[in-house]
Design goal:
The protein has 112 residues and is of the alpha/beta class. Strand 2, helix 3 and strand 3 form a beta-alpha-beta unit. The protein has a 4-stranded parallel beta sheet with strand order 1-4-2-3, with helices on both faces. It is 32% helix and 20% strand. The protein contains 4 helices and 4 strands. The radius of gyration is 17 Å and the shape is globular.
């Protein structure tokens, strides 16, 4: 007897490209990202995971002005303290924003 398959269960999920920007404090990570965002098509959905070592969200305010979604990870470093939280943050971003690309900007004190 032939069986029918549920097309939703057979659907392939495309991976979301992730770009990581890292560098020393003041190296210009946020500046480069802001410049790159200007060249993106208007309908290209970019979401940013921003790692601020302290509790200040200075750079994130600048990035939000470019109309992309920003999720903060503060009070710790992605590569050391917040490693387990990064997976949760990425999954949440995928569900909430369905991005075409995720940009991760590490803290200037990161050791990736």
């Amino acid at each position: 007897m032939p069986t029918t398959s549920d097309s939703s269960s057979d659907a392939r999920v495309s991976p979301i490209p992730v770009t990581v920007f890292t560098g020393f404090l003041g190296a210009g990570k946020t500046t480069i990202i802001m410049d790159l965002l200007k060249s993106m098509p208007p309908n290209y959905n970019i979401v940013m995971l921003k790692n601020e070592f302290g509790d200040a969200e200075t750079d994130s305010a600048l990035v939000r002005e470019s109309n992309i979604q920003v999720q903060e990870m503060t009070n710790g470093c992605l590569c050391c303290v917040l490693v387990g939280q990064m997976q949760s943050a990425l999954l949440e971003m995928k569900e909430k924003f369905n991005p075409d690309r995720i940009i991760i900007e590490t803290s200037g004190s990161a050791f990736p």
